[in-house]
Amino acid sequence: MIGHILATLLPVFLIAGCGAAYGRYRTPDIRSLNTLNMELFVPLLVFAVLADRQAPLAEYAWLATAAIAVVLGSGLVLWPLAKWLKLDSKIFLPPMMFNNAGNMGVPLLVLAFGAEALPAAVVVFIVEMLLHFSVGLYMLNPRTSLWRMLRMPIVLASLAGLAVNISGLPLPGWLLEAMHMLGGVCIPLMLFALGVRLLEIDFSDWRTGILGAVLCPLSGLVIALPLMWLLPLNSLQAAVLLVFAALPPAVLNYLVAEQYRLSPQKVASLVLIGNLGSLVVMPLTLAAAFTWVYAPL
């Protein structure tokens, strides 16, 4: 199991390392690259996943509710601590709340629990993404209007994908294939851009990065553990919630910080060290899931 987990996590660091190596000798226009990713590739990926996978969303209402509680509850739990430690909540809290449910969570959950976990993995991914581009953007800029958020490509793609999913509207295979191919660009591109930005990290903030690597999974688990027993979740859904709660910060936090110009170097440090910490956290979480929550046949 540890070997499988490492096989999932190590490509993340390899691609980021390639970005750092390239950025050391070149000066790519990362801001334009990130804008292209946020406005085209990520929305296409979200729509393609929702429209193609056809997750039976009605059967996962309680899981979606629990995922919402984990995301929002993490911020509420850590907000007083951030104030006490005099950390900028706009920089520190979003990476603690919005985790790597996409490029790490979905493949990790399917690897751990099999193809039957895919609908649950997609549901928690949807929840994280929609909250990130609604509550998360409001946290960064309270003056951000609801209409502006609804017009964002990734939100429009999520709503359109949900509509297709719920209606059961069949889409041409060639269209979905093209969307999957373009959407698949976003994950390595996010990681590559992160690696380039890592060259600008101020390592004097390494203590904050380590603090985040501990608090991100811890705050999620504090919320998730009681919900696993209080809500009517089956064993697979409970296991998915447990892993979801312990995931490290999403790479997307860095892209958003880049767009809003909110210390992207510090956010990149939180994301990198948090994902490095997952090399320890995720094996322990999966071991707990298999031991006490979900026992595959």
Structure in words:
This protein is an all-alpha fold. The chain has helices at 2-25, 30-53, 61-84, 89-97, 101-113, 118-140, 146-151, 153-167, 173-183, 186-198, 206-230, 235-246, 252-260, 264-293. The chain has a single domain, classed as Na+/H+ antiporter like fold (Up-down Bundle). The longest helix has 30 residues, at 264-293. The mean pLDDT is 85.
| Termini gap | 15 Å
- Mean pLDDT, rounded to whole units? 85
Number of strands: 0
Query: Portion of residues in helices?
Result: over 70%
Proportion of beta-strand residues: under 5%
Name the CATH class.
Mainly Alpha
CATH topology: Na+/H+ antiporter like fold
Q: Can you tell me the overall shape?
A: globular
**Series of secondary-structure elements, N-terminal to C-terminal:** HHHHHHHHHHHHHH
CATH architecture: Up-down Bundle
Whole-number tally of structural domains: 1
What is the radius of gyration?
Answer: 18 Å
Instruction: Report low-confidence residues grouped into runs of 5 or more.
Output: none
By DSSP (H or I, 4+ residues per run), the number of helices equals 14
Structure class? mainly alpha
User: In this structure, how is the largest beta sheet organized?
Assistant: none
Features:
single chain; 297 residues; mainly alpha; Na+/H+ antiporter like fold; 14 helices
How is the secondary structure organized here?
Blueprint: H1 2-25, H2 30-53, H3 61-84, H4 89-97, H5 101-113, H6 118-140, H7 146-151, H8 153-167, H9 173-183, H10 186-198, H11 206-230, H12 235-246, H13 252-260, H14 264-293
Subcellular location: Membrane
Protein name: AEC family transporter
Transmembrane segments: 60-79, 91-114, 120-140, 152-172, 178-198, 210-230, 236-256, 268-295
